[in-house]
């Protein structure tokens, strides 16, 4: 099966803790603090590899962790930085946050390398905390915690033109004839299990990229058959070629087929169904001699050309009509914005995971009188990063309460002097 989706867990490196130590040298009886800083944790970086065309590697391994930073050492030695983790993906890969589905990065166009999770900053050693009143600081700053995230990788092929149609209408034959692609061709349903890309070179030196999207069936937008596996590959295309079996060699009605596929496209994403389309009426060399009123080409034109969808009779086997079809598609592309379809970033790990946007709540305890509770992921992260046993850490804690508005929220909730504030096991009395 073509691997175009994978769910993985990624984690950056934790920052190394700062070190607590003091100079111990001959003739220096009261040496000052000399604890070194911790090293920075490694980043998680996604990078485009032009040699890849699937996400197969991420089907076998699901957890990826960058290296943690080393702890600082004695004699002001700086801990070693953690090694970055570089994850290689094919061009066109979209990285989403699993729970919300929001886009973190689109590895397309000029975006060939992006830091997704930053490693934790190393903690400062006790050498930084000496003051005139505290010359023997026994506190060093912990390293910043690692960031972790579950992400969904989705590969959406980068093509200007999408070739859609029911199975066995001749899409693979057309692609192999007009491009350098060599898809396997046989008369079976779902012969094409991979989206194939090919470059169409026109006589004037111009051209475009065409993708053969595997055969759709009714109900594809609800995941029936292979629908959901391949509909996503249409999202980047600007023009669609609807290919139908004009000769009805398998008993299918070409007019009904086009309506059925457009219905599936609209159900998946309405905007896709509104993009420019042309109809390639294939297998015209298999159409038997019929009266004009039964001509399937005339019937297709009468039905769709009033809707602005031109019909081009072709034979993918003999090549008849292909030139007219390809130049018509190129003309449509020329009228459109040449910039590739890029998905904008919607989720920013650095702000959402580090706590700037994380919520907190201030409530009066329903069980105890004169007790107020402050909870939330932002508070939990701050407490895990701060040493409240040190003078410097407690000053930082007081500043955090003021700067974040927690003190103001407590006052608005009705707290009085002497009341108790509780935060994840920490309790202190409130005084102005």
Secondary-structure topology with pairs:
Elements: E1 5-11, E2 44-48, H1 57-60, E3 63-65, E4 85-89, E5 93-97, E6 103-107, E7 113-117, E8 148-155, E9 161-164, H2 171-178, E10 196-201, E11 207-212, H3 227-231, E12 239-245, H4 254-268, H5 270-273, E13 277-282, H6 296-304, E14 311-313, H7 322-334, H8 349-354, E15 361-364, E16 371-375, H9 377-385, H10 391-403, H11 406-412, E17 420-423, E18 426-429
Parallel strand pairs: 1-3, 2-4, 9-11, 9-12, 12-13, 13-14, 16-17
Antiparallel strand pairs: 1-8, 2-7, 5-6, 5-8, 10-11, 15-16, 17-18
Q: Which short descriptors sum up this protein?
A:
alpha/beta; six-stranded mixed beta sheet; 432 residues; single chain; elongated; five-stranded mixed beta sheet; 22% helix; 11 helices
Describe the 3D structure.
Helices cover 22% and strands 21% of the residues. The relative contact order is 0.11. It has 432 residues and is α/β, with parallel strands linked by helices. The radius of gyration is 31 Å and the shape is elongated. The N and C termini lie far apart (65 Å). The chain contains 11 helices and 18 strands.
Strand ordering within the main sheet: 10-11-9-12-13-14
Coarse structural class? alpha/beta
**What is the terminal-to-terminal distance?**
65 Å
- Range of strand content: 15-25%
Radius of gyration: 31 Å
